[in-house]
Amino acid sequence: MGIVEAILLSVITAATPLVLAAAGELVAERSGVLNLGVEGMMIMGAVCAFAATQLSGSPYIGVLAGIAAGALFSLLFGFLTLTLVANQVATGLALTLLGLGVSGMLGESFLGMQGIKLQPIAIPLLSQVPFVGPLLFRQDAIFYLSIAIVAGIHWFLFRTRSGLKLRAVGDSHGSAHALGVDVIRTRYLAVLFGGACAGLAGAQLSLVYTPQWVENMSAGRGWIALALVVFASWRPWRVVAGGYLFGAVSISQLHAQAFGIGIPSQFLSSLPYVATIVVLILISHNRRMTLINTPASLGKPFVPDR
Amino acid sequence: MRIELERRPKVSALFSILSPFIAFALTIVFGGIMFALLGKNPVAALYSFFVEPLSEVWSLHELAIKAAPLILIGVGLSVCFRSNNWNIGAEGQFIMGAIAGSILPVVFYDWQSPLMLPLMLVLGMIGGALFAAIPAFLKAHMNTNEILTSLMLVYVAQLFLDWLVRGPWRNPEGMNFPETRTFGADAILPEMLASGRTHWGFAFAIIAALAVWFMMRYTLRGFEITVLGQSERAGRFAGFSSRKMIWFSMLFSGALAGLAGISEVSGAIQQLRPVISPGYGFTAIIVAFLGRLNPLGIIAAGLVLALTYLGGEAAQLSIGVSDKVTRVFQGLLLFFVLSCDTLIHYRIRLVRERFAALKTDEAH
């Protein structure tokens, strides 16, 4: 395998959790819910996936556990913001703080353990194609899932009736309610899906990216995923583009450290965070464009009048 | 069974006061269940977590030391949150304040003057405010979401501090440990009381809380903060500028976080290290909400959250649970605070499905 392939491969591995978490959050935001707890759901997914893998011996059980943990954790957010109409920004922060705390506690006995890596699955024939084969068709199940999920979200949002309803709920919950759409139910499902995706992203971190458990191993990726949704202007395929761009930034930083160029490692490590800020500025400085793209009911609470 | 909310005709004064207490009680109950699940005696565990740290003079001083930054930052954040500006990067502003304030005792370490300490405090506030100016500028003039930018800057600040103490600011006589020179006598924030370690940072916190309380209650600026926070449109009609408010609230909270940072470093640690905060900037968000964004409430809330830090350490020593329990308690507390706040504006009803169906039939 050449150096270019190796670098591209590492970019894909770094990008997959970002793409997954951002895609899930995109659906939640399209339904009008701003869930700032992505980081918390992701880290819960990571710790539960790792623990389940260690206990069962199968990383696939781990993947399922990660998804379940993220989804369950998001229900907590749903209950507070949708049923009890608590402030979405504050509740999202609470979810992140709680997730970091609970995962630290759950993961304590797994610290320093040798992880079990999710093995790649080679797709017959396609994986034999030179260059593209090893890159795209000799990957782990989570990578394939990430692409399938993005394609599924695109199809669902723009080609199905339920997707149209979900977007209607996000753009004007009052009108959607008047037309008989169950706003709260739609939002619960969207939040749950977002949680499952964030959990899966977390599972990727502790089973593929670095197969071990380290406290706070999500290292702000949940927040970067939130920025990615803005960057993608709430369109599924742009999440993939953005995710790979960020994956490339974080990988280039690692390679630069390896080559030992004269810049202190801390400055290189801060690159993904600085890049996030720069991208956010570029995307949102045009106020009108932002207004057109943002779901109009994003972050606004809804209480059905009875 | 279904939960239904019914808007109260008027904000409930009773629950405005009660809700933080209910939240705290629920946290204790859940904490007890959690300890029981961990196989510990819940009563003994809760005792060592919440009561033991209050039983000795030295630990009361530790409580004040931990409460000082929480109250200082929380009070600043309350101004932000009330005006609907979501500065969640106080942790970064705390670090940058500590760094800016440490320029004098680290770089000009052989300078001795009674002016040292006041200058350090001012520099700390400037450092925090300048770091908060980045998300403020981006929100006010570039329309960029302040939640994400302020949070990203926390990571940048942490890495910058790490670089400083391992690189240019490392103590040349420090056996290669990643820490700066210890501060000279002029650069140390003195203790307040003869009985223990509590330094003047705690006094700063109380003064800041009282000042903000006065501002919110008696000044036009306080009214402006409330109006713009509740309805930007109404504020605009009153001639208030939301852009200026972004600048004011972010710089103000940044300055207080910076003051907290330099007070902590100069009063409690007395040098810079790679990590100078156990997440004060994030915990202060919980403090602000538990105090219901009221400066006087925030003083009490700051003491409660400081207790969770001490309780975690105490519980680790006496009953052998992980000190990670602290973070769980803090997260739970915020959750319960937010859910209990619903009671202020709504009545909560449990409705049986059949009854609900009947009711809608009647309505038709």
From TrEMBL, chain A:
Query: Entry's Pfam families?
Result: BPD_transp_2 (PF02653)
Membrane association type: Multi-pass membrane protein
Q: Which residues form a coiled coil?
A: none
Q: Which residues cross the membrane?
A: 31-53, 60-82, 88-106, 142-158, 188-209, 267-283
Give UniProt keywords alphabetically.
Answer: Cell membrane, Membrane, Transmembrane, Transmembrane helix
Which GO molecular function annotations are given, in alphabetical order? transmembrane transporter activity
The places in or outside the cell where this protein is found are: Cell membrane
Q: Which domain of life is it from?
A: Bacteria
GO cellular component terms, semicolon-separated: plasma membrane
Keyword Transmembrane helix in the entry? The reply is yes
Q: What is this protein called?
A: ABC transporter permease
Taxonomic classification: Bacteria, Pseudomonadati, Pseudomonadota, Alphaproteobacteria, Hyphomicrobiales
TrEMBL record, chain B:
Say yes or no: keyword RNA-binding present.
no
- The keyword Cell membrane is annotated on this UniProt entry: yes
Q: Record's Gene Ontology CC terms?
A: plasma membrane
Q: What is this protein called?
A: ABC transporter permease
- Supply the source organism for this entry: Rhizobium fredii
Give an example GO molecular function: transmembrane transporter activity
Indicate the transmembrane segments per the record.
Answer: 12-38, 58-81, 93-109, 115-138, 147-165, 199-216, 245-263, 275-291, 298-319, 325-344
Query: Where found in the cell?
Result: Cell membrane
Membrane-related topology note: Multi-pass membrane protein
Q: Which UniProt keywords apply?
A: Cell membrane, Membrane, Transmembrane, Transmembrane helix
